[in-house]
Amino acid sequence: MSLLIENVTLVTHENVFENKWLLIEEDRISSVGQMPDVPVADKTIDGGGKYLLPGAFEIHIHGANGVDAMDADENFIEKISSHLPTTGTTSFLATTMTGTFENIRSSIENLSDYNYSAGAEMLGIHQEGPFISTKHPGAQDPKYILPPDADDIRTMQELSNHQIRLITYAPEEDPGHEFLSALNDLNIIPSAGHTDATYEQLGKAYRHGLRHITHLYNGMRGLHHREPGVVGYSYLGDAYVEIIADGVHSKPEMVRLAYDNITSSRMIMITDAMRAQGLPDGEYDLGGQNVHVNGNEARLESGALAGSVLTMEQAVKNMFEFTDCGWTDIVKMTSYNALKSLDMLACRGLLEAGYPADLVMYDKDKELTMTIVRGEVYYENH
Ligand SMILES: [Zn+2]
After folding, report:
1. Pairing mode of beta strands 289-294, 267-270
2. Cα–chain-centroid distance for residue 306?
3. 282 CA to centre of ligand 1 in angstroms
């Protein structure tokens, strides 16, 4: 089975190419070329000049469509994977959160025997907590926060069948960097989040292997003119920086300030979505805590933000609105940077022959009009 998408504007992390076609054979991109010389295919889609780009790879998503990674529910993958293509996401890291060791263990074990079947693909696990700071718990239950322990993370990585690719932790709780060294050995990317680390502590941790900052502005030491903190380090350092561009977790102006300082070369767009993404307003559970979802906000009883209901498609729209980014910047922030950091670019994320056909199409109004995963159309909206 071959599928030709003709008359499209291809967007890569480097450039925008007009009047192109892209041919998919089975689940992979087989060739790319210039209109009007198109190859023969079993099926042809006219892209009408719309933008075709690599599907989003989301590294921080707890749940959607009624399920949460912490449920340890056998239907988790099916529910989230069938839903995410409708939001422009074609692959993701299932994200756990702070809970009892038992709770985290069953969640991780539930994902450990993952095999791709359909929809968005899980590329591993992002473990958020429990090794974070009690000073910045956000919606992580402070009861279960633990000091970083190298043996604990070795055990968890074993239980996950080596699926943990990223961890959010508080570097200041690991002053000797033993935990950080264990992460490097286990091939887990360290991300500073829910942290009270100083600018200096982060610089030291970076020299020992720290590589990401988790959801900029939320759950961290803020910017102070005598202590730049995690925010200052995000602006000035070399780490990749996650941002939740919903206009709720931080004001649009703060997203712009981040974008202008960090640029698309280091920013990674995330949703941090919880189970209500794609569902109506109401009451939902997040790690055993009750959450009220109203419009684009999800909050605990206390009023604290509890994840989001943001979709990647909406995040893309917001980035265009909040900043002066272009389509190549969107590709970097939704896919390329995260794949590069996780060392996965050799096998996915590029619009080149041999790469998996994981693609999204957006129109000039930034509306998602099509999502293709492994060569199959999972979402269409004309
Ligand atoms: Zn999160």
Report:
1. unpaired
2. 17
3. 20
Structure tokens at 8: 């499209």
- What's the pLDDT at 288? 84
Give the CA distances from residue 217 to residues 70, 185, 232, 242, 291, in Å, rounded to whole numbers and listed in that order. 24, 29, 10, 10, 21
Distance of CA 62 from the midpoint of ligand 1 (Å): 6
Per DSSP, the three-state class of 168 is strand
> Residues 71, 141, 174, 272: which is the catalytic one?
272
Q: Which of 17, 126, 54, 20 is nearest to 347 (CA)?
A: 54
Q: Per-residue pLDDT tens for 307-338?
A: 999 999 999 999 999 999 999 999 999 999 99
Q: Which residues contact 73 (CB under 8 A, 6 or more apart)?
A: 67, 110
Averaged pLDDT score across all residues of the chain = 97
Burial class of residue 52 (count of CB atoms within 10 Å of its CB; 0-12, 13-18, 19+): buried
The full set of domain ranges for the chain reads 2-53+349-380, 56-341
Distance (Å) from CA 30 to ligand 1 centroid? 36
Give per-residue pLDDT as tens, 199-222: 999 999 999 999 999 999 999 999
Q: Which residues surround ligand 1, an ion (CB under 5 A)?
A: 128, 272
CATH class of 2-53+349-380: mainly beta
d(CA 363, CA 376): 20
Tell which phi-psi region holds residue 73, choosing left (phi > 0), alpha (psi between -120 and 50) or beta: beta
Q: Is 46 a catalytic residue?
A: no
> For residues 167 and 212, is the Cβ–Cβ distance under 8 A?
no
Q: 10 Å Cβ neighbour count for 205?
A: 24
Task: State both tokens at 291.
Answer: 């959450």
Q: Architecture of domain 56-341 in CATH?
A: Alpha-Beta Barrel (3.20)
Residue pair 239/197 in contact (Cβ under 8 Å)? The answer is no
Q: Are the beta carbons of 241 and 307 closer than 8 angstroms?
A: no
